[in-house]
Every structure is written in structure tokens, then in C-alpha cells.
Design brief:
With 983 residues, the protein is an alpha/beta fold. The protein has 27 helices and 33 strands. The strands form 8 sheets. The protein has a 7-stranded mixed β-sheet. A 6-stranded mixed β-sheet has the order 1-9-8-6-2-3, sandwiched between helices. The mean pLDDT is 90.
Length: 983
């Protein structure tokens, strides 16, 4: 009998162990699959365990108690043990159900919302998808840049073409991470050529595909930078012989991937964390990833040797070193297509054939040697020796991109030609144009300046041209820093037939030419002197010039703010200039006399000034930024007002106060904490939940499979069109798709700058220039808003590198550079685009995290620019992030899916904290109420505020509870029949 009981005990314990192992195995497999798909990282898992662990803690406790009870009472009678096991089973099931319920509807509700969004996401109509695909083609048509065309080789007459380069079999459509592009249904290079009537060499394609089918992954959690190019000896004599017979024309494809999470390697012999590459002998010492490696050079030489006519396709968003295009006698032409999206390669064959006349212009400067760029030594990974913090010095000051090259080599054409291969705004055409500028029309009262530019097609083919307007401000040696030329405005013509003309009108306020002067508290300043307003073919070549003379200096201070500002600009970022290491900023004084000192690499033993470390707005210091407490605000007051009732009302309307009074502190904490890809439903004010999705190239999601939204060409491709109308159309297309899909928040567009050619996310950022980026971003934001979609302008601000971005990266720069260069695009998107949402950046400006930077989010964004809406963090990862600190400084929403402890506002007994919570809630609700989510026809009064899945999961829980009750009753019936009846 004892043996039987003992065996029964071991069987019971074995069943429990098997159950535990099975659950652990399933959990491990699920987590690994999510990691492989890029949905979660180790940081996510750790955070989720920390958040949800306490909810699941009763399960192992009950399990341990059951095991203990089974062991303690194993000698008891069989009927006692039967009852014990049965009741233990019921208790365990009940514990599991209750624990999961508290987890699902507690800390995991945000993640569950994101994972179950598919139930409320609708399919985009086929007609809208088709319209978007056609728009994608237009963007690629106009964004493709003709870099080289010796003796007008293009359009080509040949109809057979050999395509060389492994990248031809696996090209770059966009980038990775939140701005990634799906390749499902994408048009590839071969299809694009064939669609235009070209015949391609299938043997070459088969050769590349057999060599390696898939591209190495450059992703958020690691990057394999291998370029899988075959060695030239692998091209057999028969393969080459067949190719030469097939055609004397070859297309060589050179591609470079990029993406979120990792910057492009500056030195292939020194990889960063999580970065690797194979074929170690492919690179010379100190070569960067943006140069040709040995295998590519050998392949290009092989093609040049064997084929009379060679065209090169540069398929890279990052600006490569392209001096080699001049080194091969048979390279007749070169075209650039950075990130054409799903359908963009359909334009390639038509461009080569001449069916489409390329009209793209570069959005960046192409230099021969990237190491000589003033930002080169101060871009990368640098750590303080006395603090767990990374840093980066923007020592080049305002001299980014063309502003450096055009200023440094002013009046030195020979040196300029040695440094710059393709100027900013450069691009060739199959036809020619003339541009004539009218005289200036000025209004001294308003400061308005206007003029016309007449563009005429003087060639033999129809085509579009870009008019680029620049200004040169008077510079006084040792005075305010100024670049020799600055983009002011631009416009693209319609397609002009040979001999046809078009007049384009330009108007701007002279204050747009003001420079920021940090002296005497800070102000924008127009120095007296002659301002040159020029029509240029690119940043370097002047077509026409007019002078605007200013007799007296104009200062835009507190008594004379700029007309576009809500309040006058004053110094806000003086804390961001020096970290105690003695940063020298590049100055134009005496023709950049301090160049060597300013651009030198920082010390490996840099020490952050102790006072700056102490005064950094870290979580423990948030109270220092709170206003005086005062009385506790009203919360949880009864009322029937709903969010739908305040739609269209001004932000300061009294009804908003009535609505906010109805929200409890718990409501507000929930709304602020769970902002991951959504805004939460709040029952007390009738707020429905909304879906807010990635990314800059069109809606995408890590969680929802089967989205049929469009992957548009990357932002750098759109920027290369220099076409504001196309930006407006892309914004409208995203908005229309959002409306149809029931997605009203768009995590884009992204408008940080190409400070360095090595920026990992250069594909999803427009340009090296804030004016080009800002004017296009404003159009995209306004376009999306036409359909009720609020666009998150991101990453605000100075998130211009991926390296160390989540390690408390302290970014040091001058206030002038911050304002004129890095905030410019955001300023335009706010003022002209009327943005109502923004995403703050991971990095710090100086020693202040962007997500809790009062100067950035309140004083500049809201105070100076008049922003009315809400700010959300970038992906919430804890660490230096803290929600209580964030709301105290103007950041309203946390991009958190699991409501981690630091994402929840604490100190809620403090009236000042509750006031900050109330303001954050007001900002979020104001934007959502005025979005398409509450538009007529989309929202019905009385509509359920709950997500559909919540009803489903509640039904699951109720069903599980019913089953448990039935099990309990069944157990009692069996026990009664088997044991009690006998007695």
C-alpha cells in the first residue's frame, strides 16, 4: 500500500515537473521567435519580467505549496489524497486564471493592445494601395539622381544588358528598424529592367543567387556588414564568354544597407558591439564601409575590362566615396537610387531607356574623402571616464555638409574640386534648361522679399528642373558664425517640353536670413550689409544673383520677435556647450584657423565636469523642475462630458477643465504610461483607444502581420525629388491609408540630419540640410492631417547617430548650431506643417535628456514655436528615462507597451505632480479629440471605449472560471460517489 501511495506521489510530482518544463519550453520558444523577428529585445524581456513578475508570483508559490502538501500528506488515506489532489488542481487553475487576468488587464494591457490590434485594423482598399504604388513610382522617377553621363551615353540604345554585382540579386529597398520596408510584392532590379523592354542575362542572376541567396542582416539588435560579392576567379570563362556575346553593355550594382540601432562602420577593422563581417581580407586597413572593398574593385575592373559600355547603379542611402567612378574608362554613366521602396525599381529601366528623364538632385554633399569631413573624428563611441555616460561633441558647429565645403573653399575653386565630387543639390538631366531671375521686390514695412524665376527647357527632350534659392549673409571676421551660402527655398517645375517655359514665384521674409547670436542673452540677428540672394544649379554653381542691402542691423529680441515666433527666441541651451573637457568649436574666424584643434578626436580619458553630472535632470532630481505645489487639482469628479464633446474647442476652453476633472489620478497615470503604439482608452471621459504605428516610410508594425499598407521610398529618396508637391502627396497617401486602416497616429516623418555620412538612419532622414528637410516634412505632416492622422515629428532633437543612443548619450553643441541646424526642420514642421505630435529623442542635449528637457519641450517647442499637442518618448526602455521627470518637463506620453514602473508617474500625492499629469493628459486628449478618430463618420456617440480583444479575453476568463467551477463540482460528485457513499 505504501509503495502504491509512494508511486502515486512520484507520478504527481512528475506530472507537475513536466507541466513546468513544458510551459518554460513554450515560453522560451515564443520569446526566441519574437527576438528573431525583431519584435522584442533582451531589454524588453527583462523589463516585462520586472513588470509582470509580481502578477505571476502567486503561481509558483501555490505550486510549491501543493508540492509541500503532497509530500507532507502522502501517507494519508487514498480518499484524503484524492481530495487533496483535486482541490490542489482547482486551486492551481484558479491561481493561474486570476494571475493571468491581473497581468493581461494590468501591466500587460498595453502590450496586449498592440498584439491584438489586428482585430480593429482594417484592410486598405485596393484602389488606395494602387494610388500609393503609383505615387511611389513618381517619387522614384523624380528622386533618382543622374550622377554621370559622359557624352550623353544615356538614354542607352542597347536593349540587352548584363547586370553585375551580387547586390543586383538582393538590392536595398529601404532600411531596417522602425523605418523598415517590406519586400513582399516588391519590384526588383531585373523586373524593373524587363518592364522597360530590356533583356537581362539570366546566367548572371543564377550565378549570384547560387553564390548566396539572402542578404546578411543589418538589424536593430546586431549587424552583419558582410558584402557577399564573389571573387573574380569565380566568374568562369564560359560565364564571361556568354555575357560578352549577350551584350557589350553592363550595369554594375553597388549597394550599402543601413538601419536603426547601428551606425555604418567608419573602420571595417574596428567593429562595434553586435557588429561583425565575414571575408576578413576584403578590406584594406582603415577602410570605411562607404568605400569599395577589394572584391568590389576587382569586379568593377573585370567588367570595365570586358565590356565597352558600363553604367553604375548606386543603391545606397548613405553618401559613399565615389571617386572611383572616374577611374574606369568604360564607365559611361552612373545613377543613384537610395531607397526606392517596394515599387521604385520599376523606374530604373525607364530611366536608362529615356522614357523617364531623371530630375533628382542630391540631398547631401558627396566628398572624395569622408575622413576630411570636420565631423569625422567626433562621430562614434566616446565614454566619460568618471561617469556611466556616453558623449559626442558637435565640434564642427554650424558647418555641416555643404555649409562646410562652400565656406571652407570659398574663392578657392581648385581646392573645392579636389574635395567635392558632387555638390549638394547636384543632378544631371537628359535635356538642358535656363533659369532667369527677376529683380527683387521688397517691402521695408513687412520685411517681405519676392521675385520670380523663369525656367526654360533649352534642350531636345521634355523634363523637369529644380530651382534652388540660396542666400549669403554679410560676414564679419570674428563675428557671428555664418556659412558662405544657405538654402532658402526651392521649387520644381512641371514637365517642360523643349522650348517651353514656366515662371515660378518666390516670397520670403528677410528674417529667414537672420543668424542666431548667443551674446547678451541670445537673439536672431540680421547684420547690416549686403545680402546676396542667388539662384543656383546646386550649392556651388551660381546661375543668377541679386543684392539686398540692409543699412542697419536688426535684432529680433524680446521687443521685436520674428513674425513667425509666438515668443522671442532667447538662449535656452547654454548648458549644452561645454562638458568640462574644453570643447573647441569650429570657427570661420581667420579662415578656420582653429580647424585642427576643433576637429581633433576627443580624449580617451574625458572627464565630465562634476557640477554637470550632479545637475543633470535625472530621475531623482525631477522635483527641482516642478512648479510650486499649490492646491491639489480636482480628480475623479463625476460628470457626463466625453472627449467627443470637446472636439473642435480651443485648448483653453473651460469645458476642457470640466472633462479633466472627471479623470482620476489612476486614469491619468494609465494614459501617460501605456503609450506604446497607441493611446489608451479612458472610460471616465469616453476616450476610445487609438492605434499609433511606425514608420517614416509608411505604416508598419512589429506586432501586426498582414498590414497591406504601402512601403514608400525612403525619406532620402523623397528629399532627392526636391518636390514639395510630392511630399504633400506622400503625406496625404499615408493619411488616407491610416484613415482606411483605423490608424490615426503616425510615427513619422523623421527629420534628424545627415550630420555624418555614417549615420545608420540616414535612409529615413531627409538630408544634411534643415531647410530642405523642414519644408518637405511640413508638407508631409500637413498632408497626413487632411485625413485626421497626427504625425509624430521625430526624433526631437539631435538624434543624429545610433551609436550609444540608449546609454544616456550627452550631445554637446553650440546654441547657434542647435537652433540653425538641428532644430530647423522641426521648427518648419511645427510652424508651417502645424504638427500636433512629436517624439522626443533618446539622447541628451548637453546634460539634459530630451524627454525631460524643459528648455526644448516647453520653452522652445511650445513657447517660441506655438506647438499645441503632445510629446511622446522614443521607445521606453527605463534606465535614464523616468515618467515623473518627463511630465514635469513637457513630455506627455511614454512609448511603453508594458507600463514599467519607471513609465508610471509616482509622487502623486504631490499637487504639482498631479498638475503635470493633468497637463500631459490634456495635451494627449486635445490631439486625439481633433484627429480622425473622432471625425464625423468615424466615431459614433456612445461608441465602446474598450478594445475588441478585451471583450474577447474577458469572455475567455469567464469561460475559464466556469470550467473551474464545473471541475470543482465534478470532483465533489466523484468524491461523494467513490468515497462518501461507501460510508
Amino acid at each position: 500500500m505504501k509503495k502504491k501511495k509512494l508511486r502515486s506521489l512520484w507520478i504527481s510530482l512528475g506530472v507537475i515537473l513536466a507541466f513546468v518544463l513544458a510551459v518554460a519550453g513554450i515560453g522560451y520558444a515564443v520569446i526566441n521567435s519574437l527576438k528573431a523577428a525583431g519584435v522584442v529585445s533582451d531589454r524588453d524581456i527583462t523589463s516585462t519580467i520586472q513588470v509582470g513578475g509580481k502578477n505571476l508570483l502567486p503561481i509558483p508559490i501555490v505550486l510549491v505549496l501543493i508540492v509541500i502538501l503532497l509530500i507532507v500528506f502522502w501517507k494519508k488515506s487514498s480518499k484524503f489524497n484524492f481530495l487533496l489532489k483535486w482541490e490542489s488542481c482547482v486551486a492551481f487553475l484558479l491561481t493561474v486564471v486570476i494571475s493571468l487576468a491581473t497581468l493581461v488587464f494590468g501591466p500587460m494591457q498595453g502590450l496586449m493592445n498592440a498584439n491584438n490590434a489586428g482585430s480593429s485594423i482594417k484592410k486598405v482598399s485596393a484602389s488606395t494601395v494602387n494610388q500609393s504604388n503609383e505615387l511611389s513610382k513618381k517619387i522614384t522617377n523624380e528622386g533618382t539622381v543622374l550622377l554621370k553621363n559622359d557624352n550623353d551615353f544615356l538614354p542607352m540604345s542597347a536593349r540587352k544588358i548584363n547586370v553585375f554585382g551580387w547586390a543586383s540579386s538582393n538590392p536595398i529597398y529601404g532600411g531596417s528598424g522602425s523605418g523598415s520596408t517590406t519586400t513582399n510584392g516588391a519590384v526588383d532590379i531585373y523586373q524593373g529592367l524587363q518592364m522597360a523592354g530590356f533583356k537581362t542575362n539570366k546566367q548572371l542572376l543564377n550565378f549570384y543567387t547560387k553564390y548566396q541567396k539572402n542578404r546578411p542582416v543589418v538589424g536593430m539588435w546586431g549587424a552583419d556588414w558582410t558584402l557577399p560579392e564573389p571573387k573574380t576567379k569565380q566568374y568562369s570563362a564560359s560565364l564571361l564568354g556568354h555575357a560578352k556575346k549577350f551584350s557589350d553593355t553592363a550595369l554594375v550594382v553597388i549597394a550599402r544597407p543601413g538601419g536603426e540601432g547601428a551606425d555604418v562602420p567608419k573602420n571595417m577593422s574596428k567593429m562595434g558591439m553586435g557588429q561583425t563581417y565575414k571575408n576578413k581580407g576584403d578590406w584594406d586597413k582603415d577602410q570605411s564601409y562607404l568605400e569599395l572593398n577589394k572584391r568590389e574593385k576587382a569586379m568593377v575592373s573585370l567588367v570595365n575590362k570586358n565590356f565597352k559600355n558600363v553604367v553604375v547603379l548606386i543603391n545606397a542611402a548613405n553618401t559613399m566615396e565615389l571617386g572611383w567612378l572616374k577611374d574606369y574608362s568604360h564607365i559611361k554613366a552612373a545613377v543613384w537610387m537610395g531607397g526606392p521602396g517596394m515599387k521604385g525599381f520599376s523606374s530604373l529601366g525607364k530611366i536608362l531607356k529615356g522614357e523617364i528623364n531623371p530630375s533628382g538632385r542630391t540631398a547631401d554633399t558627396y566628398a572624395y574623402d569622408l575622413k576630411k569631413n570636420p565631423s569625422y573624428n567626433n562621430f562614434g563611441s566616446f565614454m566619460y571616464s568618471n561617469a556611466k555616460a556616453a558623449y559626442v561633441h558637435y565640434a564642427e558647429n554650424i558647418y555641416v555638409g555643404y555649409k562646410w565645403y562652400e565656406t571652407r573653399y570659398l574663392n578657392n575653386e581648385k581646392a573645392y574640386k579636389k574635395a567635392v565630387q558632387y555638390a549638394f543639390g547636384y543632378g544631371l538631366s537628359y535635356t538642358s534648361f535656363s533659369q532667369k531671375m527677376s529683380t527683387l521686390r521688397t517691402d521695408s514695412t513687412t520685411g517681405k522679399i519676392s521675385f520670380d524665376v523663369t525656367v526654360k527647357n533649352t534642350g531636345k527632350r521634355a523634363g523637369k528642373d529644380v530651382v534652388q534659392i540660396y542666400y549669403t549673409a554679410p560676414y564679419y571676421n570674428g563675428g557671428i558664425e555664418k556659412a558662405a551660402t544657405n538654402l532658402l527655398d526651392f521649387a520644381k517645375t512641371k514637365s517642360l517640353k523643349p522650348g517651353e517655359s514656366q515662371k515660378l514665384h518666390f516670397t520670403f521674409n528677410r528674417e529667414a536670413m537672420a543668424s542666431y547670436d548667443e551674446a547678451n542673452g541670445g537673439a536672431y540677428v540680421l547684420d547690416k550689409g549686403t545680402y546676396k540672394i542667388q539662384v543656383k544649379n546646386n550649392s556651388h554653381d551660381v546661375l543668377a544673383s541679386r543684392d539686398y542691402k540692409l543699412a542697419d542691423k536688426i535684432v529680433y529680441d524680446k521687443n521685436n520677435k520674428r513674425s513667425s515666433d509666438q515668443s522671442a527666441a532667447v538662449n535656452q541651451f547654454q548648458n549644452a556647450e561645454q562638458d568640462g573637457t574644453g570643447i573647441t568649436y569650429l570657427s570661420r574666424k581667420n579662415n578656420f584657423a582653429n580647424y585642427k584643434q576643433a576637429t581633433a578626436a576627443p580624449s580617451q580619458k574625458a572627464v565630465l565636469k562634476a557640477s554637470l553630472l550632479k545637475s543633470a535632470t535625472l530621475a531623482q532630481n525631477y522635483k527641482n523642475t516642478l512648479p510650486k505645489a499649490g492646491a491639489m487639482p480636482t480628480t475623479g469628479k463625476g460628470g457626463s462630458l466625453t472627449l467627443a464633446d470637446v472636439r473642435g474647442l480651443k485648448y483653453d476652453n473651460k469645458k476642457w477643465d470640466q472633462l479633466l476633472d472627471q479623470m482620476s489620478v489612476k486614469d491619468m497615470v494609465k494614459l501617460v504610461a501605456f503609450g506604446g503604439y497607441q493611446t489608451m482608452p479612458i472610460k471616465s471621459v469616453g476616450k476610445i483607444g487609438t492605434h499609433d504605428f511606425d514608420g517614416p516610410a509608411g505604416f508598419s508594425s512589429f506586432f501586426i502581420k498582414g498590414l497591406n499598407t504601402t512601403s514608400f521610398p525612403a525619406a532620402v529618396m523623397l528629399a532627392s525629388t526636391w518636390n514639395k508637391d510630392l511630399a504633400d502627396q506622400r503625406g496625404e497617401a499615408v493619411g488616407k491609408q491610416g484613415k482606411e486602416a483605423n490608424i490615426y497616429g503616425w510615427y513619422g516623418p523623421a527629420m534628424n540630419l545627415h550630420r555624418s555620412a555614417f549615420g545608420g538612419r540616414n535612409f529615413e532622414y531627409y538630408s544634411e540640410d534643415g531647410t530642405l528637410a523642414g519644408k518637405l516634412a511640413a508638407k508631409e505632416v500637413a498632408g497626413a492631417a487632411k485625413y485626421g492622422v497626427y504625425a509624430y515629428i521625430k526624433h526631437f532633437a539631435m538624434n543624429n547617430q545610433e551609436t550609444n543612443r540608449m546609454m544616456g548619450l550627452m550631445t554637446w553643441s553650440t546654441e547657434q548650431a542647435i537652433r540653425e541646424t538641428y532644430l530647423k526642420a522641426f521648427e518648419d514642421a511645427t510652424k508651417s506643417g502645424k504638427a500636433h505630435a512629436a517624439m522626443s529623442a533618446f539622447n541628451f542635449i548637453g546634460n539634459r535628456w530630451c524627454g525631460a528637457n524643459n528648455a526644448l519641450l516647453n520653452k522652445v517647442l511650445r513657447g517660441e514655436w506655438g506647438f499645441r499637442g503632445f510629446v511622446e518618448t522614443d521607445y521606453y526602455s527605463g534606465g535614464f528615462m523616468n515618467a515623473t521627470e518627463a511630465i514635469a518637463n513637457g513630455n506627455d506620453l511614454m512609448l511603453s507597451t508594458n507600463g514599467s514602473d519607471s513609465a508610471k508617474v509616482t509622487d502623486t500625492k504631490n499637487p504639482a505632480t498631479v498638475k503635470a499629469l493633468r497637463t500631459a493628459s490634456h495635451n494627449i486628449l486635445y490631439t486625439v479629440a481633433n484627429s480622425g478618430a473622432y471625425a464625423k463618420g468615424n466615431y459614433k456617440k456612445g461608441q465602446s471605449v474598450l478594445w475588441d480583444y478585451q471583450k474577447t479575453y474577458k469572455n475567455y476568463i469567464i469561460s475559464a472560471a466556469v470550467v473551474i467551477v464545473l471541475i470543482q463540482l465534478l470532483g465533489l460528485v466523484i468524491f461523494k460517489k467513490k468515497y462518501l457513499a461507501k460510508n
